[in-house]
Design brief:
The chain has 121 residues and is mainly alpha-helical. The chain is 59% helix and 7% strand. The longest helix is centred in the middle third of the chain and has 16 residues, at 60-75.
Amino acid sequence: MRRIITLGEALRDFLKDAGLNLSDLLLAMDEDPEGILESLLRRVDISEEEARRLELAYTPRQLNLLILVLHIFYYANPSGYYKGYLLYPPRELVVGPTGKVTREGLNLIIRSLGLTPGVSA
């Protein structure tokens, strides 16, 4: 039997264990659009034009949430598991051969977190 945990469930559990509040954490993150775009481009295999489209579609809080999730669950945790549960979407579908998150992987994460363009995280 494979045990699976969604990204949203893992994020809630991670924040609870760390004693953190998502709103407070996102407030502490960079709100500067250039800093957010630079961070996305370092982690996601997309063009600058695609990053700009993301900036127009999503709020800085939503983009910071994406960056946070990418870092916690896909870069700092290359196993693909969280507390013994297989993380969904799995690393194999999110991170490409270059070590960066693919365009398709980013879309999976956005859907998994239930992010809607322009609606605050």
